[in-house]
Amino acid sequence: MTEMMTSFNRSVSFKRSASLGRRAPSVTSPRVRRLSWVSRKFHVLVVIGSLISFIIAIGCGYLFLLPSFSQAFHDYDTSKFNGTFSSCNVFNGSWVQDDSYPLYNATECPFVEQGFNCLGNGRNDKDYLRWRWKPKTCDILRFKVRNVLEKFRNKRVVFVGDSMSRTQWESLICLLMTGVENKTSVYEMNGNKITKQIRFLGVRFSSFNFTIEFFRSVFLVQQGWMPKHAPKRVKSTLKLDKLDNISTHWINSDVLIFNTGQWWVPGKLFETGCYFQVGNSLKLGMPILTAFRTALGTWASWVEKNINTNRTQVFFRTFEPSHWGDQTRRICNVTQNPLSEARGRDQSLFSDTVLEVVKNMKVPITVLHITSMSALRSDAHVGNWSDSPFTPDCSHWCLPGVPDVWNEIILSYLLTD
Ligand SMILES: *[C@@H]1O[C@H](CO)[C@@H](O)[C@H](O)[C@H]1NC(C)=O
Ligand SMILES: *[C@@H]1O[C@H](CO)[C@@H](O)[C@H](O)[C@H]1NC(C)=O
Ligand SMILES: *[C@@H]1O[C@H](CO)[C@@H](O)[C@H](O)[C@H]1NC(C)=O
Ligand SMILES: *[C@@H]1O[C@H](CO)[C@@H](O)[C@H](O)[C@H]1NC(C)=O
Ligand SMILES: *[C@@H]1O[C@H](CO)[C@@H](O)[C@H](O)[C@H]1NC(C)=O
Ligand SMILES: *[C@@H]1O[C@H](CO)[C@@H](O)[C@H](O)[C@H]1NC(C)=O
Ligand SMILES: *[C@@H]1O[C@H](CO)[C@@H](O)[C@H](O)[C@H]1NC(C)=O
Ligand SMILES: *[C@@H]1O[C@H](CO)[C@@H](O)[C@H](O)[C@H]1NC(C)=O
Ligand SMILES: *[C@@H]1O[C@H](CO)[C@@H](O)[C@H](O)[C@H]1NC(C)=O
């Protein structure tokens, strides 16, 4: 067993506090990066298309009024813990080799999109599959599929965010499917296939009467058309004071996992003509990090107002680092082993902002501060082994892989507290 000597300086925080000082201070804008970006017309088409399919999806109707989590799982291995899992700094630790990984075979899981199945797409080295996260002062629970399936019985688990959230959603479904004999009893509720722009995907585990859902909301706040009298370069705006209007569908859930971050870059915003708006006023000069903080404030108020945290356990995952070899995002040199020292673009300013906003909230939120731990995993990106081998990808992760560990951490919180 090799122990990577790596530690870092972030702590998770989920304090209750009454202060509501959430005004955005002036801050420097985050490091600029360029992204390949869809043309505006395509973007508009896609928005219309996904709106229509979303309305159809919702039209089909689903209603879950679920009882609260109360069942305890006495047979779950908690013997290694001193005190509660949440008192441990789960994110201070190291990656250790463990041959009991990976936890599933992506080729046998119909919910892994082809682009993330690295082995299936020709990756030969397998070391990257065999790493477990070891917090310094506690252990993540061993994944025992039966216990998790029972824990989720009659529940609704909802992921909200960008494609990183979709990957994690796929990962959780595949983890859980290893415990389901009749694979056809697990299906997408509307018969939809996984596509990049789809607004809603919900997979039902019918024998256990629960769903694992994904809502695509890359900014969490609402994107709207160009306002009247706006300068020509403004094609659309991001309404920082309004949460995405599919948010009503996130409310009656039992587990709610958010992320945002990857789209808060000039290439996805200003370069596509998308600027910030608060109320009726355009904020043309507002730095991205300030806008990000404002949007998170909107999210925080929405959670406080709409989510009954007695029933719903809320998580927010911090920024997922990428490991591009250059500024133009063309070189992606996936390594064979994790780094011994965090490198990669970790956007810690975004992660710090999440921690800060959550700290000032009146309800308990668990921050999944996975930024630094994931920054060590330059070996775990899709690289050339995606569905389009000519566009390397040093942002997304292979499945099985790092997103499984994010899920194991969530499951540890759910099963120990
Ligand atoms: C991580 O653990 C090390 C050693 O136990 C400790 O020195 C360090 O302060 C910890 N970091 C955080 C952020 O808790
Ligand atoms: C399935 O779950 C829902 C929501 O908790 C519940 O109302 C319903 O009774 C459950 N169905 C069965 C067959 O247990
Ligand atoms: C995954 O499953 C496929 C199809 O059953 C099989 O061909 C492949 O060898 C398996 N891969 C691993 C790593 O077990
Ligand atoms: C648990 O607590 C005991 C004593 O209280 C200590 O010796 C031991 O190292 C602790 N184990 C862990 C994993 O923290
Ligand atoms: C598997 O599940 C499907 C859908 O729920 C059901 O129609 C089928 O009868 C099940 N097959 C077995 C062998 O239980
Ligand atoms: C979503 O927002 C748009 C304006 O941004 C509005 O026209 C539309 O009615 C909203 N849809 C729902 C379902 O609330
Ligand atoms: C949540 O639980 C607390 C303590 O049991 C109770 O005081 C509070 O009213 C509950 N909140 C809601 C919204 O049910
Ligand atoms: C890729 O990484 C390997 C090992 O870390 C290194 O030897 C090689 O020079 C790198 N190639 C590029 C193009 O960065
Ligand atoms: C990916 O492909 C490019 C060109 O096709 C090649 O230069 C590079 O070495 C490949 N990288 C890996 C990690 O295989």
From TrEMBL:
It is a single-pass membrane protein. It comes from the Eukaryota. The chain crosses the membrane at residues 42-65. GO terms for cellular component: Golgi apparatus; membrane. Its main location: membrane. It is found in: Membrane. One of its GO terms (molecular function) is O-acetyltransferase activity. Residues 87-139 form the Trichome birefringence-like N-terminal domain. Keywords: Membrane, Signal-anchor, Transmembrane, Transmembrane helix. InterPro entries: TBL, TBL_C, TBL_N. Residues 142-412 form the Trichome birefringence-like C-terminal domain. Belongs to the PC-esterase family. TBL subfamily. This is Trichome birefringence-like N-terminal domain-containing protein. It comes from Carya illinoinensis. The lineage of its organism: Eukaryota, Viridiplantae, Streptophyta, Embryophyta, Tracheophyta.
